[in-house]
Design goal:
Keywords: DNA damage, DNA repair. This protein is mainly alpha-helical and 232 residues long. Helices cover 53% and strands 7% of the residues. It is globular, with a radius of gyration of 19 Å.
Length: 232
Amino acid sequence: MRIEAAPGGVRVEPCDEEIAAEAAWLLGVPLDLDGFWAWARGEPVLAALAEPLRGYRPPLVPDRWEMLVTLITAQQVSLRSAFAVRSRLIERFGTRHGAAWAFPSRARIAAAAEGEIRAAGLSRRKAEYVTGLARGDLDLHALAALADAEVVAAITAQRGLGRWTADWFLARALARPHAWPAGDLGVRKAVSFFYGCGRELDETEVRAMGERFGPWRNVACHMLLAGARLHG
């Protein structure tokens, strides 16, 4: 629903079903947090995070196209740089609705020249990846019906998209329980902080560590990241 200030109180407008579904996804509603925290009582590190992270819900991304473009912009740069590039991309190619902007559609990016995309701050390679994805034939809606390994294969078959991208897509665009982005630097640091005994674990070790979380890997990943942020 939309809640706005109004004379003498607030105005409440109910949302339609499509908007409600997107809002639920953004708030991480599909993730079974009650089940996760019940399971986590037997995992000391996570059990200790239950109280500090009370009420935290890992956010998901309802738009799969937006998720992949976001991941491309975030490859091998700081979060601040990635955010700045995405903001420029949205302002140049998105649709404005009042004070907000809608993310650029796949068709809009497909119609743009690579030089226009680069003008938003993307490197030449990343501009090629984004336009290639936009103009390609990857069916983003069909990915939801595939097994995890098939999703990874479909995404990594695209130019410029690797395992890191596929793992985060599984985690945040599809909310897959076993998603575990072991190649992500932040994930490796978080897992190392809590389980590395003072040593930074490599990707192979972190990927193997994911097995201990079973079908709770995706939520565990987000909680460990959030927990590491609490510790500075």
